[in-house]
Write a structure and sequence with these properties.
Protein name: 2OG-Fe(II) oxygenase
Distance between the termini: 28 Å
Radius of gyration: 16 Å
CATH superfamily: q2cbj1_9rhob like domain
Organism: Duganella levis
Number of domains: 1
């Protein structure tokens, strides 16, 4: 498993600090993760006020041997250093890693993930089989809670990544899935 996270990163300040990359991991590693997610990952349905999705925490499971290095202490430290650099932040050693799966009919409504004293930065890596616009599942960034105030839209292309700073302004949502399965690996970081 490669420790090389994120090639060709672009940083943006609008509508809130975030960064995107068309290639988050080595392609072979991304394929291994997608295969696990599609075949034997322990998905559980979670329903909350603003979303319904399948998910699990990677600290609660034993990842397959060929994926485990991605979750090693060294890999998470490397990614933490990158996030610190991208956002000029000072982060603790704590990193939560979860996996999410959205299927047709599921959506995530506008929210900001901001909880005082909780995570301050997040990295998302997308996995799927040839996502098309008509599949839905777009990551949308907003300037306000108004659903028409969309500032940026990102297709969940396979092995792409998005990182963002969590604050009251980090309003985002995922449009309804119409076809296919949209998998996301979510890394959450905490300020010191």
């Amino acid at each position: 498993m490669s420790l090389n996270f994120f090639d060709s990163l672009q940083n943006f300040e609008t509508p809130f600090p975030h960064a995107v990359s068309p290639k988050a991991l080595n392609p072979d590693d991304a394929e291994k993760i997608l295969h696990w997610f599609e075949t034997s990952a322990p998905w559980k349905l979670v329903e909350e006020s603003f979303y319904e999705q399948y998910e699990f925490s990677l600290k609660d499971v034993t990842a397959p041997f060929d994926i485990a290095p991605l979750l090693s202490k060294e890999s998470l430290q490397h990614l933490t250093l990158l996030v610190e650099k991208w956002f000029c932040a000072s982060l603790s050693d704590k990193v939560d890693v979860t996996a999410h799966k959205l299927v047709p009919g599921q959506t995530i409504r506008i929210h900001n993930d901001f909880i005082p004293g909780q995570e301050t930065h997040r990295v998302l890596i997308q996995f799927n089989r040839g996502w098309k616009d008509e599949n839905g599942g777009m990551l949308m960034l907003f300037g306000s809670m108004n659903p028409t105030d969309i500032k940026k839209v990102y297709r969940p292309a396979h092995n792409s990544g998005v990182a963002f700073e969590i604050s009251k302004k980090s309003l985002h949502a995922v449009s309804t899935i119409h076809d296919g399965e949209r998998f996301t690996l979510v890394f959450s970081f905490f300020e010191k």
